[in-house]
Amino acid sequence: xxxxxxxxxxxxxxxxxxxxxxxxxxxxxxxxxxxxxxxxxxxxxxxxxxxxxxxxxxxxxxxxxxxxxxxxxxxxxxxxxxxxxxxxxxxxxxxxxxxxxxxxxxxxxxxxxxxxxxxxxxxxxx
Length: 126
What we know:
Keywords: Actin-binding, Cytoplasm, Cytoskeleton. Occurs in many kinds of cells as a complex with monomeric actin in a 1:1 ratio. GO terms for molecular function: actin monomer binding; phosphatidylinositol-4,5-bisphosphate binding; proline-rich region binding; protein sequestering activity. 34% of the residues lie in helices and 33% in strands. It is an alpha+beta fold.
């Protein structure tokens, strides 16, 4: 399966409207849904935030020039919310999945589909 199929599958769940897949270091974009390419500084902040969330805690989580309120930041997952929409970033062994969910989708539903895909990638060595 191509990397693009993973982002397409996230969007096909109906819980995610935009998704991207980056290398674990955040320096390489592997796949994206239409119009969902983060700025270099945004993906860099997220990639660093898994190991040291202090920057995200003090400056917020930024995706596509939108600031999100940081809900969670640990070595595996970073969650952010802005009004009724949100962002989920999950790190696997070799990749970072970043997904946006729109208004009308429950945060728990969106995080579950992204976390499950990360679990699958980890199970196959990615």
